[in-house]
Amino acid sequence: MPGYLLHIGATVMCMHAGQAQPTVPNPRVLVSNQPTVQQTNPYLIAGCSFVPPGGNGPCVTAQWITASTRIKSNGIPLLLQDSIAVCTPTGTGLNIVLTQLRVKGV
Hints:
This protein has 106 residues and is mainly β. It has no helices and twelve strands.
């Protein structure tokens, strides 16, 4: 099922409302005049409100485990609106709240 391509300006948050941003943009493919993001690039998370009693801390980074199966840049899959990520150290996911609505991929 097609999903919209994720770009640098997309609103992405951890499950605890922390803001997530990609560490490396992909300037080779632009959507809405903004760089896309490749699956191998981790996201940094700021402002995660999760303070567990066990002490493993709030979400700090996230790594994507699913991405586009057909759209690649430099041989690396691009992220889609329905891509899935896992946060470290909590093991929870990311929510893609808002992204561009012009370019879809599979």
